[in-house]
């Protein structure tokens, strides 16, 4: 095993470090891939992490109130359950601690290079290698696996005058914990998953809070509670009980697919639950009208919260629906001409999802980047491989996202699929493995076929699930167990490979 000291010497010398596999990112996807490599006996790998610790999204999103909207027993690795979750829905610090514990438990830290943001990854067709440039040095890898997920790079709004604002501006994914909001006039832009968590967390201590809403979300009750000492002891002594609970949670969430992807009328009970929740918590008719969605539930992400509506109903809170015209040095001006004095802007404006930033940095065989290849829409084979990019595998890529269940389930499916690809390369002695354009096009058609008639395309809303062409390039539009079945084995017939003997004598 290459030691951290040896890694540091290589980086300081400016030498290019050669590895069998380079993994980008160390969130759930990157850590899961690293564990899979170890499981397959592959030790010659490195995890390139731009941050100073593992954790990915759960390291970066530390804003007040940050938590998961999937139950803890399901939002964790199936092979590494945690019997000591303090709540049924865990908050950011607990999930971050879980991931750090995973890195320690599987002894992965020595495989990491921290502070290594990937600035470019270019395929060298003669050498059959990926040349990877990072802020911590250069690497050359036979196989490149990107675990840079969709919730990695914040999206900043293009609002006239925002660059002139004289107060504090912070994105929820880049929270400034040194800044004291006590007594301040705060503007929160956005009403998505981050906003409904951060607003209730900061509303009691700010002077005033204006929430700038473009589209109201559907919100259902959050069935969260502390776990009991008895539960934790039971899970520790009888792991099968926790596994059974996980299975029940998974099955229950899969029922939502029936309404989202099969028959939208089946979502009526869920929408009724959300409407009842709203009516019980919002008494003011004017506010109630402002926060009532006009689209089918599930068309946009369903949010869960018990304190969102009470927070925006508070005397020091206001929901603004007029739309922002401009931002001035000390205020926000809406299209109806109203100017609201503001000390701090909180941008709860989400992430680059359908235009993944990492795609601009990965260049394939023909000299085009992934972003250029995907200009008309992201397309892959099984969300994992792209024609023209040999030995590149994507985790949490296009059409792997889910709006109803745990992303970790999908990540484990993909990690196993990539593992099968690596196994095929080893068994067959392949220098390269690349999916075919035909397989990629067939998969695009499969996604389009299964997306037709779903709530995401016909629910009456626009969402970050869809790209600028109106295509679903984000979500897996069916039951997740079908995705697992599809990725259980490598579809070898959809790949071409170059044997090592054909590249004999080529510098590696």
UniProtKB/TrEMBL annotation:
Lipid metabolism in keyword set: no
Domain of life: Bacteria
Cofactor(s) listed: FAD
InterPro entries attached to this UniProt entry: FAD-bind_Monooxygenase_sf, FAD/NAD-bd_sf
Family classification: Belongs to the FAD-binding monooxygenase family.
Taxonomy of the source species: Bacteria, Bacillati, Actinomycetota, Actinomycetes, Geodermatophilales
Stated name of the protein: Predicted flavoprotein CzcO associated with the cation diffusion facilitator CzcD
Record Pfam families: Pyr_redox_3
Record keyword Repeat present: no
Keywords noted in UniProt: FAD, Flavoprotein, Monooxygenase, NADP, Oxidoreductase
Protein species of origin: Klenkia brasiliensis
Molecular functions per Gene Ontology: monooxygenase activity
């Amino acid at each position: 095993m290459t030691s951290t000291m040896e890694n540091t010497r290589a980086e300081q010398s400016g030498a290019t470090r050669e590895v069998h596999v380079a993994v980008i990112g160390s969130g759930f996807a990157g850590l899961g891939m690293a564990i899979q490599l170890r499981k397959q006996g592959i030790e010659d790998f490195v995890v390139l992490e731009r941050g100073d610790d593992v954790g990915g999204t759960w390291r970066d999103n530390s804003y007040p109130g940050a938590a998961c909207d999937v139950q803890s027993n399901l939002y964790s690795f199936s092979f590494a359950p945690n019997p000591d979750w303090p709540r049924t829905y865990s908050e950011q610090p607990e999930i971050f601690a879980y991931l750090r514990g995973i890195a320690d438990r599987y002894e992965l830290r020595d495989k990491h290079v921290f502070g290594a943001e990937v600035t470019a990854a270019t395929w060298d067709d003669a050498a059959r290698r990926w040349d990877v440039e990072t802020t911590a040095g250069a690497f050359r890898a036979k196989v490149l696996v990107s675990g840079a997920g969709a919730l990695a790079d914040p999206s900043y709004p293009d609002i006239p005058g925002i660059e002139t604002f004289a107060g504090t501006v912070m994105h929820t994914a880049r929270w400034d914990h040194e800044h004291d909001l006590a007594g301040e006039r705060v503007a929160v832009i956005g009403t998505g998953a981050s906003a409904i968590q951060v607003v209730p967390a900061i509303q009691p201590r700010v002077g005033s809070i204006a929430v700038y809403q473009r589209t109201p979300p559907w919100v259902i009750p959050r069935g969260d509670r502390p776990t009991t000492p008895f539960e934790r002891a039971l899970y520790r002594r009888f792991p099968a009980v926790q596994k059974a609970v996980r299975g029940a949670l998974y099955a229950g969430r899969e029922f939502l697919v029936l309404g989202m992807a099969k028959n939208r009328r089946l979502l009526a009970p869920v929408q009724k639950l959300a409407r009842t929740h709203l009516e019980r918590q919002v008494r003011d008719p004017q506010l109630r009208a402002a926060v009532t969605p006009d689209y089918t539930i599930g068309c946009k992400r369903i949010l869960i919260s018990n304190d969102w509506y009470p927070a925006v109903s508070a005397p020091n809170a206001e929901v603004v629906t007029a739309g922002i015209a401009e931002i001035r040095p000390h205020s926000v001006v809406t299209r109806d001409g109203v100017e609201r004095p503001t000390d701090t802007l909180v941008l709860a404006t989400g992430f680059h999802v359908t235009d993944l930033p990492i795609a601009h940095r990965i260049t394939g065989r023909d000299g085009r980047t992934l972003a250029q290849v995907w200009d008309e829409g992201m397309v892959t084979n099984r969300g994992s491989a792209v024609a023209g990019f040999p030995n590149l595998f994507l985790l949490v890529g296009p059409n792997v996202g889910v709006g109803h269940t745990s992303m970790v389930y999908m990540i484990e499916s993909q990690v196993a699929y990539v593992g099968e690809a690596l196994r095929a390369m080893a068994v067959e002695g392949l220098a390269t493995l690349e999916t075919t354009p035909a397989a990629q096009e067939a998969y695009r058609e499969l996604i389009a076929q299964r997306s037709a008639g779903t709530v995401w395309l016909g629910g009456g809303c626009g969402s970050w699930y869809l790209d600028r062409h109106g295509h679903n390039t984000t979500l897996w539009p069916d039951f997740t167990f079908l995705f697992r079945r599809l990725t259980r084995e490598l579809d070898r017939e959809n790949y071409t490979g170059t044997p090592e003997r054909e590249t004999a004598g080529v510098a590696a």
